[in-house]
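ARCHIVE CARD
CATEGORY: sequence design from structure
SOURCE FIELD: tokenized fold
FIELD CONTENT:
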């Protein structure tokens, strides 16, 4: 029986090299022997199927999957900004990022860091090389010492011992704090708390002297120093007013050439700043 084959590509085994496959083209054939007479004929396959091995096909599928995943992720990240994203207090995006942690160096290898904790701040002493941390002071002992002073309640003492606004001396062995507009000093080593001021008016800009013996502050635009050991304050100025600002800086309004700032260094860490009105006369 004659069998007619349309022109197509078939894969067969070369008679003289059974282990080698080759591709040949068969044109339209008439009056040929039955298919059974053709040696080693296998089902027809395309050139693309011959050229792409299973391993290559796997790599192609993997590349396609990765491309789809990446393109989908990029598309998901693309979002038009709205006014709410920029201005709404509850929805706006933080374009500035997180600020650097507020740390202060104690010495060449350690720094102090106020770590947020339940009920306030836990002040820690951090080893910069190893990252190990220990409490800078015992907050519970500090609260007990403060609560033992007249006029200081236990709740106020506990809040003060975990306050972020603590001011430390240069050696980080004492803390300066404010309770009800008055200044207190707590010594870590001796576990002793003292009330430094007891006068009407709030004390502002308080800080230790470099040797830790004095505390300077501003009250009613006048500059004071207090002896920590004697618990006695001394007024360095008495002419403070809305126009005369001693020990503090403020914006100077008006024509700059009509104003003068006189710096009198009364203490190594404090500056007496006096703003004079136009004409240079008080």
């Amino acid at each position: 029986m004659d069998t007619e084959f349309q022109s197509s590509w078939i894969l067969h085994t070369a008679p003289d090299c059974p282990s080698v496959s080759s591709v040949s083209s068969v044109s339209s054939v008439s009056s040929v022997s039955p298919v059974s007479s053709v040696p080693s004929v296998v089902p027809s396959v395309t050139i693309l199927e011959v050229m792409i091995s299973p391993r290559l096909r796997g790599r192609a599928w993997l590349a396609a999957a990765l491309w789809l995943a990446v393109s989908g992720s990029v598309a998901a990240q693309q979002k038009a900004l709205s006014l709410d994203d920029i201005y709404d207090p509850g929805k706006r995006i933080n374009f500035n990022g997180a600020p650097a942690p507020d740390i202060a160096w104690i010495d060449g290898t350690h720094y102090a860091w106020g770590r947020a904790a339940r009920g306030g701040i836990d002040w820690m002493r951090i080893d910069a090389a190893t990252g190990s941390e220990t409490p800078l002071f015992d907050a519970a002992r500090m609260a007990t010492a403060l609560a033992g002073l007249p006029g200081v309640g236990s709740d106020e003492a506990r809040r003060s011992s975990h306050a972020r606004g603590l001011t430390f001396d240069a050696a980080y062995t004492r803390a300066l704090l404010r309770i009800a507009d008055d200044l207190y000093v707590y010594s870590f080593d001796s576990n002793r708390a003292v009330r430094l001021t007891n006068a009407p008016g709030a004390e502002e800009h308080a800080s230790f002297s470099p040797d830790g013996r004095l505390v300077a502050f501003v009250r009613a635009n006048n500059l004071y120093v207090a002896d920590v050991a004697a618990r006695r304050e001394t007024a360095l100025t008495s002419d403070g007013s809305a126009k005369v600002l001693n020990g503090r800086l403020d914006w100077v309004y008006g024509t700059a050439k009509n104003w003068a700032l006189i710096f009198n260094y009364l203490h190594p860490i404090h500056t007496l700043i006096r703003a004079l009105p136009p004409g240079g006369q008080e």
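CARD ANNOTATION: The first strand starts at residue 8 and ends at 13. The two ends are 130 Å apart (CA to CA).
SHELF: design records, drawer C
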